[in-house]
Amino acid sequence: MWSSSVSHELRTPVSILAGYIENSGRFPEMARTEQAEIFAIMQEHVTRLKALLDDLLTLAAFESKSEVLDYSGAGLCPSFCVGSQRTGSRRSQAGEMGLVLRTR
């Protein structure tokens, strides 16, 4: 189920990009304004693909259980990062999952 969802999420922007590329080859006389609109749409889908691939790489890193997590810039403080007791508890939970939690 998960792999079919990932496949669908990757296939959609790739199909859209392929369609635009194919059509731009068929209609080289296309107006510049129309080309600009198409390139903007293509850029959106490339950005989406990059985000999906980044998410997959992050997931792979978590699955390898060797990822070092840095929450300092994530806007989770003070509820997550501050307080030695709270941080120690989170660090212990992260350790049980094979992760390292570092705070400032």
**Global structural class:** mainly alpha
Helix percent band: 55-70%
Cα radius of gyration in angstroms: 21 Å
Mean pLDDT figure: 76
Predict the CATH topology of the largest domain.
Helix Hairpins
Largest sheet: 2 strands, parallel
What is the ordering of alpha helices and beta strands? HHEHE
Strand percentage lies at 5-15%
Low-confidence stretches: 80-85
**Extended strand count:** 2
- Classified in CATH, the superfamily of the largest domain is Signal transduction histidine kinase, dimerisation/phosphotransfer (DHp) domain
The CATH class of the largest domain, by name, is Mainly Alpha
Terminal Cα separation, in Å?
39 Å
* Strand order, largest beta sheet: 1-2
What number of structural domains do the residues give? 2
The general outline is: elongated
Task: Count helical runs.
Answer: 3
CATH architecture of the largest domain: Orthogonal Bundle
Topology:
Layout: H1 2-26, H2 32-64, E1 68-70, H3 84-96, E2 100-102
Parallel strand pairs: 1-2
Short description:
This protein is mainly α and 104 residues long. The chain has three helices and two strands.
